Each structure stands twice: as C-alpha cells, then as structure tokens.
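Consider the following assembly input.
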Amino acid sequence: MDLITPDFGLFFWMLVTFSLVFVILKKFAWKPIVQALKERELNIQEGIENAREARNELENVKVKSEKIISESIVERDQLIRQGREIKEALITEARTQAEAEAKKMVDLAKKHIEEEKIAAINQIKLQIASLSVEIAERILRKNLKDDRQQKELMNSLLDEFILN
Amino acid sequence: MSRILIIILLSALWADILYARSPEDNPADNPLEKIPFDPGAFIFDHIGDAYEWHLFDINGRHYSVSLPVILYSREKGLNIFMSHKFQHGKATYRDFRIITDGPEKGKIRVVLEDGTVDPDAARPVDISITKNVAGMFFAAFVMMFIFLVIGKRYQRNPNLPPRGIQSLFEPLILFVVDDIVKPAIGEKKYIAFLPYLLTLFFFIWINNMMGLIPIFPMGANVTGNISVTAGLALTSFLVINLSGNRQYWQHILNTPHVPILLKLPIPIMPVIEIVGIITKPFVLMVRLFANITAGHIITMGFFTLIFIFGQVSPAFGYGGAVLATGFGIFITFLELLVALIQAYVFTLLTSLFIGMAVDDGH
C-alpha cells in the first residue's frame, strides 16, 4: 500500500475506533477524572484557605490572650495593693479601737478599784472605829474599876489632849 | 492479574491464527545470499500496512499472524476470510488477489483465472482488519483499559492522592488540562472540549509509543500512516468548525478591517480563509504522519545497515550490528520524545484552533 495515499479501510476503522474510544472514555473516564481533579483542586484550595484562616484566628487568639494576661496581671497587682491597704487600715483601726477599749477598761477598772478601795477603807475605818470603841470600852471597864485609876486616866487623857 | 491473563489469552487467540508458509520450495536456502538485499523495500514493508502481521522469518519461512480480510463488492457481495488464504500474497482466493506490483501494489483486486486484474470488476470496498487496524485496536484497548481503571479510581475516592498507574497518568492529564487546553481555549469554555482533546492526546501518544515497541501486538506504524492521521485531522476539523461561533465565521466570510476590494468583485479573502480552514487540519495530518514515519524510517535505516554490511562480509555485518544497534537505540530514545511531542503539538494546535473558533472577541 502506498505511503501517502489514504486507505479507505484504515481510515474507516480509525474513525470507528477513535469515536468509540472517545464516547466510552468521555462517559466513564474523562468526566469523573476531570470532575475529581477539579474537586480535589477546590478541596486543596479550601484547605489552604482554612489553614490560613485558622492561623489568623490563632494569632488573634494569641494576641487576645496576651492582652487578657497583661490586664489580669495589672488587675491582680491592683487587687493586692488594695488588699494590703485595706489590711493596714483595718489593722490600724483595730489597734486604735483596741487601745481605746483597753484604756476604757483600764479606766473602768481603776475607777472600780478606787471605789472598792474607798469602800474597803471606809469599812476598815468603821471596823477600826468599832474595834477602838470596843477596846476603849474594855480598857475603860478594866481601868475604871477604881476611882484612882479613873482619875489617872482622866489626867493622862487630858494631858494628851493638852499636848495635842 | 486477571487483566494480564486476558491479554495473554487474547494473544494466544491471535497466535492460533499464526501460521507459517514457505515461499520457496527449498527453504534451507538462505535468501539473503541469493536475493540481493533491498533496504528500501525492507523499510517500506515495515512501516506500511499489510493484510497479515509479519512476525519473523526462520530459514526463509515467513511466520505471520493471519488477520481478517473484509471485502465488499457489488458482484461478489460481502467476503470475510482470514488473510492466510492468500498465502503471503502468492495465492488467489475467491477470485481475490493482493496485487504485487504497479500503482495498486498491496491492494486487493478481483482477478481473472490467469491472475491478472479483472477489468470489468469494480474495486472491492476493503475494510479488512489490517496490521495497522489490529495495532490500533490493541492500542485503543490498552488506552480504554488504563483510563477506565483510572476513572473508576477517581470516581471512588477523588480526594485521595493518586496511586499506581493513576500517579503515572495524572501529571499527563493535568499537563493536557492545565498547560494545553486551558490556556489555549480559555478558562470559561475549555471544559466542554476536554474529553475530545484528552482522547486525542492519549490516542496519539499511546499509538506512538506502541509503534516503538517492536513486539506483537505492538509495533504497527499506526500514527505514521496517512489514513490514521487523516482521520485524526478530520475529527479535529469537525470539532473546530462545528464549535465555531458567529465571530469565527464572520472572520472567515467577511474579514473585518480589510479593504472591500479584497472581498467584493473577486472574494480573495474569503477564499484564502476557507483554504486556511482546510490547511490547518491538513498540516496537522502531514506533521504527525511525517514525524512518526521519519522516525521509523531512520530507525529501520540503521537496522538495515546490519544487513547491508552483512552482505559484504559476515564479520563486517557483526561489527556493523554493534554500531547500528547503538544508533538505533539512540534514535528510539529520540522517538520516545517525538512520540510525546507530536501528541502535544497535535493537541495544542487543535486546542488553539478551537480557542480561535470559540473566541468571543475582545
């Protein structure tokens, strides 16, 4: 068969084969392949986009958390300082109060003691008075059994008074 | 594995038709010593089409695979028989005979008793499964097998990375889609043309590659045959022009920005444009045919050197064999590249022409 003369049989079979291959592969190969490749492309693109978004989000979250941490540190310091101030104020207040109370109590006690003392002294005085009266009575009774003695006493007493 | 088994069985079926006939009565004679070696005939026998698939010669015996001959003529009706009935073109069967010389060399004609062409009988319509048709069938079978398997895999799990044969073809598919079709046709319209252009690319490429493997059932010079490239060019022509929009046809029939004198009394521009429509696929046809055939001729040329040298002296032949085989391997590697480049060029140009035909204008 000549080299450059087209041959009908081969031409015919070529068209038949090519058409069959085309029709079958179009339906069962190219469509799913092209679709899958496109799907995969979209999938990958989406994945990259998602990853980028997630990274951004993460960065945001990081920034936010850092901000929150620094804020909370400031707040904590503030709270501590406040607490310390309150504590000190409380302590000083309590101290002054306690001091006042103690003073009051001491005063009260002193007053009580004074009163008691006075009362005791009074009682002692009374007792001493009655004792002296009794003693005096007994002495008098004993000493005044005779006149002379009476006179003597009278004299001594008088001397005493005069001396005084 | 089962698929490989099917292929082996299929080839066994072919081998069943394998037959051997001796062309000479004394097969022990070495034909190389008697008949002077004709490299031209040898090469053109290999790159041409044939009714039988010649495998090898042993002691002057031809071993070939017989292929179905399908003939139709008004006088004799439909005739289907295996080509071994012709006994390598030496016998007449049902009044049909392969013409051995003259302008119709290699074709089947109706002959008279004495073996001369019957002048009254019409040429039979010949749609025989020739060597090239069988080779093309095999390539088409391989191609469908590959892409149906891949297609199924893509359908089943589109988001998994490609595996096995899929990872071999995915870069090529992506190459065709992203580097040939998409830029040539444009983002908006390329999808519709993908199935055709992918089929085109892989049909040409796989047939080119098959043509380089000289083992049955590969090695037929399919894409180096003008009928095949003409068929491909015809499909390309149809796709380009059937998808052409108003703008495209207006450009052809009434080219804008061209002086009216070039169009009106004598329609020079429209004629040029219409010739252009035809030359585009014609050039595609010739380019593919010429490139592949040239590659086969060069490769065969180097191998014929062995026999040419061998005719001078056997030692010279063996020495030449080393050199020629080296060159042959080199050219075969080059042909591997050409196989891909020609598939690429054919697909790229068809895509560009489609791109022009569907362009909306600017």
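Chain B has two domains: 2-130, 132-358. Ask yourself how this observation constrains the way the partners meet.
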